[in-house]
Structures are given as C-alpha cells and as structure tokens.
Amino acid sequence: MQSSNGRSRGTGGGSESSADNQDDHGAASRDVRHEDPWYDALASGWGELDGAGMPAAPAVPAARGERDGADVRARDVYVEVQRSEAFQEVRGRYRKFVVPAVVVFLLWYVGYVVAATAAPGFMARSVVGAVNVGMVAGLGQFLSTFLLTWAYARHARLRRDRAALELRWDTQELTRGVQGGAS
User: Does 156 have pLDDT greater than 60?
Assistant: First the structure.
C-alpha cells in the first residue's frame, strides 16, 4: 500500500512497519466501514436504480427545447405574473427604499474612509476624554448598519410583505391550475 507521499507503507524499518507487522487483533475493526451520511448519500435521483436495474431518473436534465407542455405553460404563468401591475408595484416599492438607502449608506461609508485617511488630525480630535471623532464615527458605522437593517425590515413588513405574499399565493394557484392540480 502507498501513502499519500508516494512511499510504500509496511516495508522496511521504522514505526510504520512495526505497527503493521504486529498481530492483527484489530482486523475486524478495520473492515468496518464508517457511514458518513453527507458523503455517502447520492444527490436526489442521481445514480439510483429502479427495480429493472436502469437509472431511476435521467442522468442529465432535458435541454431547454425539450420541455413538455406543462413546463411551458407554467413558465408563461410566471412571465404573466412578472408583467402584472401587482408585481411591478411590489418591485417599485422595493426599489424606492433600497436604492436611496444603498446610496446614502455608501456615501456615509466612503465619507468615513476618506475622512480617516485624508484628515487624520480631524479624526484624532478629542470629543470626551480619550474618545475621539474617529471612534465616534466608527461606532456610528455600526449604529447606521443596525438602523438600516431595522428600517429595511420594517419597510418590508409594512409595505411589501402582504402584497408579495398575495402575489405568491396567486402565482401558485395559477401554476397548480396549469399543471392540472398537481403540486
């Protein structure tokens, strides 16, 4: 047998050979296979055989041009929903919050970095005792991150979540109808 460094194991002198040449009291324990569910499990449907010894599912998914009618109709449902006024309203509400919030946050962050590098004297100015402007601005970065996260979650809860949930429900109902009631 060879080790990972290319040298053969079990031959010659040394601690390896003495361990291999000892009585084989642990042979049964070496034959036991360690079951690792993360390593041994097949991906869903890949490599599994049906009762006749054939693969249960095709090894490669069908190409885009080979879709059946239900898939095409389901795709049409999603395209129709995407073009709907309700979807555009949800996306518009999202953009009206996220774009200005990202711009303001990035300006605040870049301003902090530029001030820290271009005006070290200003950032070193004492506010209270050993606390300086740089420390206050740095802690302000953390505070603004938490405030932005809170504002985003609140905006989503109050202005988008209900409309998005209704839109998702309608989409699932339309898709079920297209696929003949199957989920």
Answer: yes
